[in-house]
Amino acid sequence: MSTDMEVPAVRDTAGISLDVERYRKLFALIGCDELTKIAVEIGMTVRQVRRACNEGVIGEVFMARSIAALKRHADKLAEYGHEPPGLDDLFAVTTEPTAANPAA
Fold this sequence. Notes:
Layout: E1 12-18, H1 20-29, H2 35-42, H3 46-55, H4 60-72, H5 74-79, H6 87-90, E2 91-97
Antiparallel strand pairs: 1-2
Helix pairs in contact: 2-3
């Protein structure tokens, strides 16, 4: 039997983190100073926005809709000296070693 398909036992956990402070600030500049208003602007539920901001539960739809919403308001952001952010401006890949790999 070939071992090419074996999954390594040692892994890091990876995720996406949100720069919540910057996210909330940019949305406040376009008039969305509450999670409810952000949810309406990005077309998601308040629960989904709360989970992203408070618990770090972030998916690609949340990311895409957030960036698209801020780009729609590029003129308003420009009034305050900001450009619409890209993915790297609000989101970052995070990694943490698992218990099986504490030195990573």
